[in-house]
Design brief:
Length: 271
């Protein structure tokens, strides 16, 4: 059996004899010629139907919901959007998924007063309506603080995060000394467990910490976030003598800093 390219070559002399100056490309026979006016119209229609409306949603998560995993949090919001009858956009393909992403996933057990979620809608909805309708469908422990529209090219890129840990009065002197010792070190290497198919690696936790102090009965620290990574909450706690298994669930992510559009202050935000 002749292949398509061989069929095209076999018929070329007959086509030239009939007075056609150029043999059409093989793809043109199935309507994918980029010069076709009809196909251009269909492309324009496809572009119009693919319009995306992106929103950055700032929220807080507290109480028992702080023990939700990243995937459980995504499922919770997917269901909340469905109940709120908000036109969420789905990915294409055989297994479409809602276009929802949590920018900086929390460690399980850590509460947060400053989370960011980016969602795409298939139709425009006013930011105030999104906040009102979504707030009505989220459970106790989640507060929708504000909603902001994003451009198609805008990105929420985290750069810093601040964490707070309330302490008992009896623990304050020891933690304060441990903080001073930690900040005085040029580096502090810890070994992270190996992920599937990877080796264990050494990480300089001290290099990510911008500031650490004890103030008003709380341990407060600020850390950088970049493409090079960041410090894990448990690593910081262990470094100052607070066993992470006992203290992680008491930590609160108080605030986060973002680059580009997500760095713009949200109206009505509770800093």
């Amino acid at each position: 059996m002749l292949r398509p390219i061989e069929v095209s070559r076999a018929f070329s002399p007959l086509v030239r004899k009939a007075g056609v100056k150029k043999v059409p490309r093989f793809g043109a026979c199935v309507g994918i010629d980029s010069q076709s006016g009809e196909n251009r119209n269909s492309n324009e229609e496809g572009t119009a139907s693919a319009l995306r409306y992106r929103l950055a949603i700032r929220y807080a998560i507290e109480g028992d919901l702080r023990f939700l995993s990243h995937q459980d949090s995504l499922r919770l919001f997917h269901r909340a959007f469905a109940r709120a009858d908000l036109p969420i956009r789905y990915s294409e393909g055989f297994n479409p998924r809602p276009r929802i992403s949590i920018v900086m996933p929390r460690p399980v057990g850590v509460a947060s007063h400053d989370e960011r979620m980016v969602v795409e809608l298939s139709a425009p909805v006013a930011e105030e309506d999104v906040q009102r309708r979504l707030s009505a469908e989220t459970p106790d422990g989640i507060r929708i603080l504000s909603v902001q529209r994003l451009g198609l090219q805008d990105r929420c890129v985290p750069t810093e995060a601040e964490y707070v840990l309330p302490l008992a009065d009896s623990a304050l002197p020891d933690v304060e000394r441990a903080c001073a010792d930690f900040m005085a070190k040029p580096n502090l290497m810890v070994e992270r467990p190996a992920l599937a198919g990877r080796r264990r690696r050494q990480v300089d936790v001290r290099g990510f910490i911008i500031d650490m102090r004890v103030s008003a009965g709380r341990l407060i620290w600020r850390q950088t976030i970049s493409q090079d990574g960041t410090a894990r909450v448990g690593e910081v706690l262990d470094a100052v003598g607070l066993p992470s298994r006992e203290w992680t669930h008491r930590v609160i992510r108080h605030s986060a800093a973002f680059r580009d559009e997500c760095a713009i202050p949200f109206a009505g935000s509770n800093q």
